[in-house]
Specification:
It holds the Pfam family ABC_tran. This protein is an alpha/beta fold. The chain has 19 helices and ten strands. Bound molecules: adenosine-5'-triphosphate.
């Protein structure tokens, strides 16, 4: 595997760490999402945090004024009373505004995060990440964390401002009455904070551990409602089975979440008791002092209020600190995904991977190509040497699992060979600009897509700049023998090829095609690139009826004329006229030659051909085919 592939592919989600950088970027993300909204939210949050303290100070001035009895200035007292009321009203309004601004920032963040994350995902040029469960889990964690963490940090900032104002006010009161109480409250608050931070770490770890369970849950949920899966689920009676797996996956995840919540509750309950003990102790001491005449009743009342105020402020602060820390930890996944190096080697040793791709003049050569999907997996290609000469039609045959589609994927550079190299006119594919390379290739994949888009779009996406080019799309559809069918749909080429993705329930329903019709649409899509240098067709006619296959093979033969093509097929008759036929067995090339040459060799190809021909002649190969008899010994 290339050295640049990081530890996320495949494996489990690595544990996140608390990073200052993550916290800073997390806060900055809000401003990138909406500078005005985030600034207003922060300003409002700070003001909403400071106003209660200001209100308390005005209240103190009011009580001081009233306390002067007959000497009190009525106008000043009235003014102060109105000010207290105004500050109260303003605080309430600011809280409403802060709530709205918080929502604005959240919504903008959702868009910004999706935008950035999926733009990044689009930059990964190979397939490895998309086949890694750890990558999918990280992506989900990254998305959730990037949407939630900034909010938690903002709330934490707001509470911090409030806490400083409230606690410093109340601390003065406590210091005046019984100073050791301040130390006791700070000690118990500090201990609760430390415990909460540990709890936050545990909570973040559990989110990482259960992310796979949630992925499975989404998979089962999607399957249970997928119209393509509905037939088998009903026929084989899989509904209950899948449903129970869905519930089990969800149950496992929620059990783990509940375990950590239980632990948190126990720890917090312990601190609640400690707080009660501290308050009790302080109250007893101050009350005893009052009984002995050292404190007034007012002192006792103020003391109890101050202690309760500090404790509840600490409680909120500690809780929010835990959420902020958990958010920042998980936000690390967002950074990791954003900074993940590409899964393809960025360059061959001697190049930076951006060499222009010249029109194919000599051909494509695979030199001793070894490949496996995982470091520990079996070799799928074992030293393949193969040449696709420019302008030639090459047929690739082999039994299931021989490695044919893998070879196709390597030609498109979805993966790099583990050993050996693939050369485009003598230049290593790793040295070439991969996007340009792919623009020069037209492919029909064996597992082609059926997009829930219109007929026009389903074909047009094969050459995006010509997405709206109706004539170009129809020409490709004609070659794939599907034009008549698509033109005859209720809205012609504008018909949605989907039963479920219709936006307007009252509009004409979408339609769905048959398996063979979908295959023709996929074929038409690959034929959109009329000037492609290399045409690869991986089982393009496996779902076609005999007549359609015959017609399409004739059209494709004309289309391939003079251009380089690689045709993978189990229907050997489709390959008869290829310039070269290559037989792949267990990941190695075992035979190469024209149809006639390979038939006369009476090897693997001749055997496969005879088996197929015998099927059509209604005869048993072992008895009827001289080729089979000749090759039986080899096998
Ligand atoms: N993405 C993947 N990850 C891991 N293993 C894979 C992957 N794709 C294919 N394989 C394995 O590689 C081997 C070759 O598969 P490949 O699809 O290339 O065979 P094929 O010759 O095209 O077969 P078929 O004729 O059935 O289409 C198989 O054993 C398969 O299990």
């Amino acid at each position: 595997m290339p050295e640049t592939v990081p530890e996320t592919a495949p494996g489990t989600v690595p544990r996140s760490r608390l990073r200052l950088r993550a916290a800073l970027i997390c806060v900055a993300l809000q401003f990138q999402a909406t500078r005005a909204g985030a600034s207003a939210m922060f300003g409002t949050a700070v003001a909403a945090g400071l106003l209660p303290a200001f209100g308390a100070w005005l209240g103190k001035l009011l009580f001081d004024e009233i306390g002067r009895g007959g000497d009190a200035d009525t106008a000043r007292a009235t003014y102060l009373a109105l000010s207290v009321a105004a500050v109260g009203a303003l605080t309430a309004l600011l809280q409403q505004l802060a709530g709205y601004l918080d929502e604005v920032v959240r919504q903008r963040l959702v868009v910004a995060v999706e935008d950035r994350l999926f733009a990044r995902v689009n930059e990964f040029r190979g397939l490895r990440f998309f086949e890694s469960p750890a990558f999918h889990d990280r992506l989900r964690l990254a998305q959730e964390a990037a949407q939630d963490a900034p909010h938690n940090i903002t709330m934490f900032s707001q509470l911090s401002v409030q806490a400083v104002a409230t606690v410093s006010g109340f601390t003065g009161v406590l210091l005046a009455v019984w100073p050791p109480m301040v130390g006791l409250l700070f000690l118990s608050g500090g201990a609760a904070l430390v415990a909460q931070l540990f709890q936050a770490r545990r909570q973040a770890e559990v989110s990482e551990i259960v992310s796979g369970k949630y992925r499975r849950r989404l998979f089962y949920r999607g399957l249970l409602t997928d119209p393509r899966a509905a037939k088998e689920i009903r026929l084989f009676g899989l509904g209950g089975f899948l449903h129970s797996r869905l519930v089990t996956a969800l149950g496992d995840a929620t059990d783990a979440e509940l375990r950590v919540a239980r632990r948190g509750t126990l720890v917090q309950s312990g601190f609640a008791l400690l707080n009660a003990a501290v308050t009790g102790l302080g109250t007893v001491i101050v009350a005893t002092g009052a009984a002995q005449g050292r404190f007034s009743v007012g002192d006792v009342t103020l003391f109890i209020a101050a202690a309760a105020g500090i404790q509840s402020t600490f409680g909120g602060f500690v809780m929010q600190a835990g959420m902020a820390v958990e958010g920042i930890r998980l936000f690390g996944h967002y950074l990791d995904v954003m900074e993940l190096p590409d899964d393809l080697r960025t360059a061959a040793e001697e190049s930076d991977g951006s060499a222009p791709v010249r029109p194919l003049a000599r051909g494509i050569e695979l030199r001793d190509v070894w490949f496996r999907y995982d470091d520990s997996g079996p070799w799928v290609l074992r030293g393949v040497d193969l040449t696709v000469p420019a302008g030639a039609a090459v047929g690739l045959v082999g039994r299931n699992g021989a490695g044919k589609s893998t070879l196709v994927k390597l030609l498109c550079r979805f993966y790099d060979p583990v050993r050996g190299s693939i050369l485009w006119d003598g230049v290593d594919l790793r040295a070439l600009d991969v996007e340009e390379l792919r623009r020069r290739i037209g492919v029909t994949f064996q597992d082609h897509m059926a997009y829930d888009l219109t007929a026009q779009e389903n074909i047009g996406v094969g050459d995006l700049p010509r997405l709206e080019d109706r004539e170009g799309v129809r020409a490709a559809a004609r070659e794939a023998e599907i034009d008549e069918k698509l033109a005859g749909l209720p809205s012609g080429y504008d018909t949605l090829l989907s039963r479920v993705q219709v936006d307007d329930y009252d509009a004409a329903p979408g339609v769905t095609l048959s398996g063979g019709q979908w295959q023709r649409v996929a074929l038409a899509r690959s034929l959109m690139r009329r000037d492609s240098e290399l045409l690869i067709l991986d089982e393009p006619s496996s779902a076609l009826d005999a007549q359609a296959e015959h017609d399409i093979n004739r059209t494709l033969r004309a289309h391939r004329e003079g251009r380089t093509s690689l045709l993978v097929s189990h229907r050997l008759s489709a390959l008869r006229d290829a310039d070269v036929i290559v037989v792949l067995e267990d990941g190695a090339v075992v035979e190469t030659g024209t149809h006639d040459a390979l038939m006369s060799e009476q090897g693997r190809y001749a055997h496969l051909f005879a088996v197929q021909a015998a099927g059509y002649q209604d005869a048993r190969v072992g008895e009827a085919s001289p080729v089979s008899e000749a090759t039986a010994g080899e096998r």
